[in-house]
Amino acid sequence: MSKSFAKDNLLKSTTIVGFMTFLSRISGLIRDIIYARLFGALPLMDAFLVAFRVPNSFRRFFAEGSFSRAFIPVLSDFEENEDEEGIRELVDRTAGTLGLILFMITLLGVIFSPLLILLFAPGFTETNVENGRYELSVEMLRLTFPYLLFISLTALCGAVLNTKKHFWATAFNPIILNIVLIGFAVVLSPRFENPGIALALGVFVAGILQLLFLLPFLRNYNRLPRPKWGWNHSGVKRVIKLMIPSLIGSSASQINLLVNTLIASFLATGSVSWIYYSDRLLEFPVGVFGVALSTVVLPFLSKENALDNQKQFKETLRWGLSLALLVSIPSAAGLFLLSGPLISTIFLGGSFSDYDLMMTDISLRGYSIGIIGLCMVLVLSPAFYAREDTKTPLRFGLITLFVNVVLSILFVTYFINENSDYPHLGLALAFSIASITNAGLLLYRLIIDGLIEMNQDGLIHIIRIALATVAMIAFLMAFNPENSLWANSVLSERIRSLFFLISFSVVIYFSILFLLGFRFRDLRVESKSEQL
Description:
mainly alpha, 0% strand
């Protein structure tokens, strides 16, 4: 396969995944707008967000995190070196083993829901007891926890499809979740005495539908699993061996978000919701670009490693990191400066008050700084998992977790001692610093290993991005009105103003890049270029 053809496939696949993820994020924003208008930052919403975040976070660092990053390299190796019967046996044994283990975990999760809420949101029982957040979240978690079983099996199906370079169906899958949750919130929740139960039931139903959606695509590739127990299967053993250390290494950011939720449960009512709404807007650029890159890069890196094609491995890694920096740096600056306008345009109204706008704006500005680190990690970590090195990301993940916990406690304590109205800002700042720390450690290790080399072209690329971002910042600072003006304007005016600011920011950013000599073909791999 020629270099240009390989990179054309990478760019095409990333574009497809990015577009599908964009649609997913749009539908997710619509879902969150409905949540904000119907439930705002009320105790019911705090309770539901914890009940949903517990299985959803487990899904992200267990299914889509450690499992996918352990399974795809092993399956890629089998696809290159084993016959059809051996490949199918690996899929069947993995599905059966994973399914039974997850069923037992799900059963335990449902039974011990009260203890899980005590673990992940202990503050629900100690502050504002009268609002009943603890009892609400326990009741909802019993319905939402089985989502972990369904979505983890969905992740298995998606990993098989990604190995076949079939990305769009997996990327489209989250849209099903959002559509179902929107339907349950709008149609069913008013019919329930406790609307949160309708939301939790929607999560349960969505998990089943997401799994069923991918099965026909697996059948087309003759990869539909016939689950069998396979703990002693050699391929399953390799997957488990890689999974165990990567549970933390691949999911440091998700664990850090859980830590934030835990600490926020001790703060004022609404803190969990403010952090959630901030996280949702943070995930928009990270999800559309970072996750798309990570989804596409891992199978390509895994195949190149299986073929022992180290030159192409380095080329793919360089390409991904260059594109990640091109998108994440201006996204971080834009989200910081447009935090208030975005929140007021998307969420303000109904039960979401001006006070909620102010508090969410504060935390989103703190989170925005971490976009660069998050996007870099999503590109850099697959380089380790593709080589079946899970110990290095584990070590760095533990360091990152320690940094986040310590800084979260220090920052929140400082803000409380200073009688600040927004101690939850400390959680956002700690998360961002931890994310950047994780990215820096991974980058340093890859440089030491000789897989990333900084040269003059790479330095020029970074300088161009920095200068173009500064020009974009100058424009936004000059033309972005105060938050109070956004809050007092009508929705149609907010939308027009936000569209103007975002569109002109993009034009200015890429125009300056163009004037400085950047061309998109620079991201393509040339025969003379192997470095960042």
